[in-house]
Amino acid sequence: MEAWYWLNENSRTFLARGYLAEGQTAEDRIRVISDTAEKLLKKPGFSDKFYEYMSKGWISLASPVWSNFGVKKGLPISCFGSYLPDDMAGILLTQAEVGMMSKYGGGTSGYFGALRPRGASITDNGHSSGAVHFMQLFETIVDVVGQGSVRRANFSPYLPIEHPDINEFLDIGTEGNPIQKLTHGVTVGDKWMEEMIAGDDAKRALWAKIIQRRGQMGYPYIIFKDTANKNTVQVYKD
């Protein structure tokens, strides 16, 4: 197959609308990416091999790599995951973290499983508004933070399926819900799935709602956390 067959007129036009510097060709940009990778990896010959693989269409680059890798403009990583602690200072700090990562080109997400549910007591200060309520802060980030001309910010909140606010969470994106722009997901463990399959009526009803929502709108994402942890690389297990 001819080299650079995939760089047709439409591809070049698309890349020129935000991924390339003025006067730069796609091949020029790929050479910068290739050379930068070789320098970071300290592997002689890597640049030419990577460049060749790109010419054959064997590698497809993520948007932040096209836009930012090898130039001092933003983050070259597609996705980041943040953890929200169960206190206001930590929640607001995470909001600022997500906002800055979004500004510099990263896709972001957050785990809300540690937040107490709606109605839970707060020491000397009434009751919590719940995990889903705080997700509205991140809806605002998605609405106002841009990433140059490449793409808008994106945020995915995750909640464990056993969290008391799960039914409220599953209503994200439905008509009239205050949260419309977040791409939400649930985490599911082996024990919960085994109990659902064994016949737990409440769990089966909840699972049916999740499947129904996915059919209607494509969300929530589903992460089987124990499967992921069992199959992760050894460095994370250690």
From TrEMBL:
A UniProt-annotated Pfam family: Ribonuc_red_lgC
Single GO MF descriptor: cobalamin binding
Domain of life (superkingdom): Bacteria
Keyword entries, A-Z: Cobalamin, Cobalt, Deoxyribonucleotide synthesis, Oxidoreductase
Alphabetical GO biological process terms: deoxyribonucleotide biosynthetic process
EC number: 1.17.4.1
Cofactor dependence: adenosylcob(III)alamin
Enzyme class of the recorded protein, top EC level: oxidoreductase
Function: Provides the precursors necessary for DNA synthesis. Catalyzes the biosynthesis of deoxyribonucleotides from the corresponding ribonucleotides.
Homology family: Belongs to the ribonucleoside diphosphate reductase large chain family.
Name this protein carries in UniProt: Ribonucleoside-diphosphate reductase
Organism listed in the record: Candidatus Kaiserbacteria bacterium CG_4_8_14_3_um_filter_38_9
